[in-house]
Amino acid sequence: MALSISEIKNIMANGRCSRRKHHAAEGQRYYEAEHDILKCRLFYYNADGELVEDKTRSNIKICHPFFTELADQLSAFMLSFKDNPIRARAGADGLQEMLDLYFDDDFWSEAADLITGAYSKGWEYLYGYKNEDNRIAFQCADSLGVEEIPARDADDGQDHVLYWYKDTMDKGKKDVWRIQDWNAKEVRYYMQVGTSGKIELDSDATVNPRPHVVFTDEETGQRMGYGMGFIPFWRLDNNRRQISGLKPIKGLIDDYDMMQCGLSNNLADFDTPLHVVSGFQGDNLDELQQNLKTKKIVGVDAEGDVQIRTVEIPYQARQAKAADDEKNIYRFGMGFNSSAVGDGNVTNVVIRSRYTLLELKAKKLERRLKKLLKQLVKVVLDEINDEKETDYQLSDVYFDFVHEIMTNETENLANEKVQAETRQIEVNTILNIAANVGDEQTLKALCEVMDWDYEELKDQVEKLQVEQDTAAARSALGGVVTDEQAAEAGAGEVFGQ
């Protein structure tokens, strides 16, 4: 069963005009540095008391993309790990290699878009598909074009996901929208020319409806397919109410844009001085203006004078307000302000403290990301178990996100030097008292200081001792006994036999 054309049309129309999607689109717009300052217009009241637009004054419009930086910071920080954070537990032999195959660089690239979209818009989707290697892969889907329809709201009583996106192809200079109706078994393809055009089946889709997975049978050569048994769409929410990270800082960003653009307008409008002329000898002001621009000379009578006046621009107040806005943008946006110099103290403690808010924000979203990853891992494990005839469980996998934070390398080297010197003192102390405590206690103490495995090292020492005693026995009994007898003689010395 599928959604009817009228249902699809109503769902898309309601989605496009919903308040929720409106705020999401606003977050996406600010992420793309399209701020409200671009809509700014200047007006004044004319002599008749009418409000008219002023098109002569400067109206500079500059967007300052703080939100872009905050969103990219969050995505980069959350994914700043060296190894795959999806780890197989000890005992799950061969699982880590398979996890690395599924969750590779391509997946984490899509995950970066997922995190960025969830933070900027409030929520974002991943959807699954079978790639050319017949493995399930994941790709980010724009949440502005996704609507979830629960079974209770659908005429056929099934859960659906409606996904639409703008195609790059133009048809009569109108946008062409590709529409996909997903259920647990198949997907139907539709198309629409323009936002108000007729929705009809997509003629470019060779199989419509199409099962989730389509393949060619190796024996018969026939095209076959099957459904996954679930709708392969997964959602990551920025927070419980799916609110964009823009909301708490939008007013601050708009105020910063206004302060900086206002200063630019003042500088553009008052970049030339005002000339106050008295006793002018000429016919009209046009002649005066021409003389000032070209000859730099003005003729006045005996009592005349020319004074040059400049307008004092209150830039200091604007700069102070802009600096305060910038500080609050990073504070309430919970980001790392790389332009904050402070008192010049760049110790690791100070650097770590500057990352506190960003780390807090990342931890909150990380919990939701882990919840989504568990769903993806379960799907991947089911596929691995079916293909490899294994029995991996979700309990065999854990998540280990270790974020990297820049540090002061000079301080790190100094700390490592101090640690190495301390370790050397401890080793020398142990060796000095080795004769009093015995070989076994000495070996244990050295293993604790050097972080060695005592049992493994003990076995190696015993094996080496056996080999040395065997070699000595062979040398002493050479030509008298066989090699086997010499080895037994050496072993007997080691174990006191």
Topology at a glance:
Layout: H1 5-17, H2 19-31, E1 43-45, E2 51-53, H3 66-78, E3 86-88, H4 95-102, H5 105-121, E4 123-130, E5 136-141, E6 146-149, E7 160-171, E8 174-182, E9 186-193, E10 199-201, E11 210-211, E12 213-216, E13 223-226, E14 233-237, H6 250-269, E15 274-280, H7 285-293, E16 300-309, H8 315-332, H9 348-354, H10 356-388, E17 397-399, H11 409-432, H12 434-437, H13 439-450, H14 454-477, H15 483-494
Antiparallel strand pairs: 1-2, 3-17, 4-5, 4-14, 6-7, 7-8, 8-9, 9-10, 9-11, 12-13, 15-16
Helix pairs in contact: 3-5, 3-10, 6-8, 11-13, 14-15
Description:
The chain is of the alpha+beta class. It contains 15 helices and 17 strands. The protein has helices at residues 5-17, 19-31, 66-78, 95-102, 105-121, 250-269, 285-293, 315-332, 348-354, 356-388, 409-432, 434-437, 439-450, 454-477, 483-494; strands at 43-45, 51-53, 86-88, 123-130, 136-141, 146-149, 160-171, 174-182, 186-193, 199-201, 210-211, 213-216, 223-226, 233-237, 274-280, 300-309, 397-399. Strands 6, 7, 8, 9, 10 and 11 form a six-stranded antiparallel beta sheet that branches. A three-stranded antiparallel beta sheet has the order 5-4-14. A two-stranded antiparallel ribbon has the order 1-2. The protein is flat.
